[in-house]
């Protein structure tokens, strides 16, 4: 076991900081798959895309995508000015 | 603190969507642009659901584009976003109408009413957004 003194301990600390920055920083899969990233960015984005798709289905009455959506939202579609039969 | 703020804003957005849906029902009954074919109880649910979905979509776009829109205040930003979302949907509807004119009829009074309702949604959204910004805990004041 080597005992570090003075500037040696400082140099060790700098080296450890540098290595930890390399490990955690930048664009890597670990960071992308972090729980925070999934909860704060990916999940809201997926929810918005899902809602936008459902709005398109409702607005155009796409019975092929969701059966019965045309009749269920018929009055709503006319009220918001979307073309219908 | 942040998750509490997020849930508070989400609850307000859902509530404002329901209110807007029912308000659009009332406005349509007043203008008579379209005569309702379904019953009142059915329409209460469908308008509330449609309002919530449209409100959340507009809020999502407002969240993403808030810093890039050419206004300082939240209200005109929200109006611009909701009117743009409605316009995109309406342009899609115009394409469908051009492709299948027997299936998709364009009715001008309903279109004008829809645009007006999109602006109303923007106003409601802007007020809710501005009010919740004041409670965000980030030192931001409510700027409606």
Topology:
The complex is a heterodimer of chains A (85) and B (144).
Chain A: H1 7-24, H2 29-32, H3 35-60, H4 69-72, H5 74-79
Chain B: H1 2-31, H2 40-65, H3 74-99, H4 108-134
Helix pairs in contact in B: 1-2, 1-4, 2-3, 3-4
Concise overview:
Chain A is mainly alpha-helical. In chain A, 68% of the residues lie in helices and 0% in strands. The two termini of chain B are 22 Å apart.
Instruction: Give me the secondary-structure category of chain B.
Output: mainly alpha
Oligomerization:
heterodimer
Number of strands of chain A: 0
Please give the largest β-sheet of chain A. none
Instruction: Give average pLDDT of chain B, whole number.
Output: 87
N- to C-terminal separation of chain B?
A: 22 Å
Task: Tell me the fraction of residues in β-strands of chain B, as a range.
Answer: under 5%
Separation, N- and C-terminal Cα atoms of chain A: 84 Å
Q: How many β-strand runs of chain B?
A: 0
Choose one word for the global shape of chain B: globular
Work out the helicity level of chain A.
Answer: 55-70%
Rg calc of chain B: 17 Å
**Count of discrete structural domains of chain B:** 1
pLDDT average of chain A, as an integer?
Answer: 77
Question: Poorly predicted ranges of chain A (pLDDT <50, ≥5 residues)?
Answer: none
- One letter per element, helices H and strands E, the order of chain B comes to HHHH
How large is the count of helical segments of chain A? 5
The percent of residues in helical segments of chain B reads over 70%
* Low-confidence runs of chain B: 136-140
């Amino acid at each position: 076991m080597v005992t570090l003194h003075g500037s040696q301990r400082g140099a060790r600390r700098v080296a450890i900081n540098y290595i930890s920055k390399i490990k955690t920083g930048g664009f890597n899969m670990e960071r992308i798959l972090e729980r925070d990233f999934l909860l704060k960015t990916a999940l809201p984005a997926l929810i918005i895309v899902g809602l936008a798709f459902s709005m398109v289905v409702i607005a155009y009455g796409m019975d092929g995508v969701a059966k019965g959506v045309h009749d269920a939202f018929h009055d709503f579609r006319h009220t918001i000015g979307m073309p219908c039969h | 603190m942040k998750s509490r703020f997020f849930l508070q804003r989400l609850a307000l957005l859902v509530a404002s969507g329901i209110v807007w849906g029912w308000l659009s029902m009332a406005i349509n009954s007043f203008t008579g642009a379209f005569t309702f074919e379904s019953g009142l109880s059915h329409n209460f649910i469908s308008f509330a659901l449609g309002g919530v979905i449209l409100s959340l979509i507009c809020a999502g776009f407002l969240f993403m584009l808030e810093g890039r829109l050419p206004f300082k205040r939240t209200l005109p930003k929200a109006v611009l976003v909701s009117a743009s979302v409605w316009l995109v949907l309406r342009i899609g509807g115009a394409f469908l109408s051009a492709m299948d004119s027997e299936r998709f009829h364009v009715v001008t009074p309903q279109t004008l009413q829809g645009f007006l309702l999109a602006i109303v949604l923007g106003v409601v959204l802007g007020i809710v957004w501005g009010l919740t910004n004041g409670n965000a805990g980030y030192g931001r004041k409510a700027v409606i």
